[in-house]
Amino acid sequence: MGELDRLFAILAEARHRLVRIALVLAPLFGFLLFFELRPLTLSVGGVTVPLAYPWPNPFYNITAQVFLAMVSWMLPPGVQLLNIGVGDSILVQMEIGLLLTVILGMPWIVHEVGAFLVPALRRNERALLRQIGIPATALFALGTAIGVFALTPFTFRLLFLYVSAMRLAPVLGVQEFVTFALLYSLAFGVVFELPVFIYALTRLGVVRAAAWRKHWRGAVIGALVFGMVVTPDNSGITMLLIALPMVGLYLGGAYFAGRWEARRQRSRAPPGAVAGAG
Q1: Which of 15, 48, 64, 109 is most buried, judging by how many CB atoms fall within 10 Å of its CB?
Q2: How many whole angstroms separate alpha carbon 195 and alpha carbon 257?
Q3: Which residues span the domain enclosing 1?
Q4: Is residue 43 part of a domain?
Q5: Would you say 254 and 213 are in contact if contact means Cβ atoms under 8 Å apart?
């Protein structure tokens, strides 16, 4: 009965944390869908500062503004987007709104998840979470930014070169465009978490550093499979553009895991053994 009570307590705590997350994310999602940001310039000491203020508008809202910015930045000139399905425009706004909600609400999500997990972690696991928290967040932001501002626009331009070479009309469904752009950009953010994942597993003693180096061929196959799954097109080009950086990040994570393991072994070695080795 004690174990059952403990299980119910854990479920109740998880429900409590999920409700707290929803109470923050739901209003944020509604704000993105029902307000637009109108530009405002403020002159302070002769310096013009660009600002924006929210204004109710359920049609031309913040998600629509982000969509137009994505089109301007990512698509080559002359590509025409088509609203093929009746509700495609609404689905696109909701997809962008969900993504922005998760990104903007991520600090609160991490806080609540951490508050739920920390009581069950050992001291070394808590220390590891504190050490990798900032690098993991920075790498995810860096990977997503590279995907949004560099690789996704490059991929669209590359793919539409084939369209132009075959004298085909450069058109694209709006739903396909947003799905591809969001998945492809987020995939780079996830891929950039790989070194942190490898390093953490070695720090926790789950996987030895030598195992990462030994199974690099399996990592290459896994990178190709991951690239194939997360890219919605069948060209193979987008798969390689994800898989190749993923392999490099895997090797980088294995390198830093090996360095940490070697440093720990040196610190645990008796002083005489270290002197004799020197």
Answers
A1: 64
A2: 9
A3: 1-144
A4: yes
A5: yes
110 vs 68, residue with greater confidence: 68
Lowest-confidence range among 9-23, 110-124, 177-191? 110-124
d(CA 51, CA 28): 20
Q: Which residue has the tokens 């951490």?
A: 114
Res. 255: pLDDT tops 80: yes
Is residue 52 within 8 Å of residue 39, measured between CB atoms? yes
**What distances in angstroms separate CA 135 from CA 64, 172, 200, one per listed residue?**
32, 37, 12
Contacts of residue 198, Cβ cutoff 8 Å, sequence gap at least 6: 207, 212, 250, 253, 254, 256, 257
Mean pLDDT of 210-225: 91
What mean pLDDT comes out for the span 209-227? 90
Query: How far is CA 235 from its chain centroid?
Result: 23
The answer to the question of residue 221 being in a domain is no
- Separation of alpha carbons 268 and 49, rounded Å: 57
Distance, in Å, from the CA atom of 152 to the CA atom of 184, rounded to the nearest integer, reads 7
**Gap between the Cα atoms of 7 and 3, Å rounded:** 6
Handedness of CA 164, 166, 172, 178 (dihedral sign): negative
Read off the pTM. Answer: 0.79
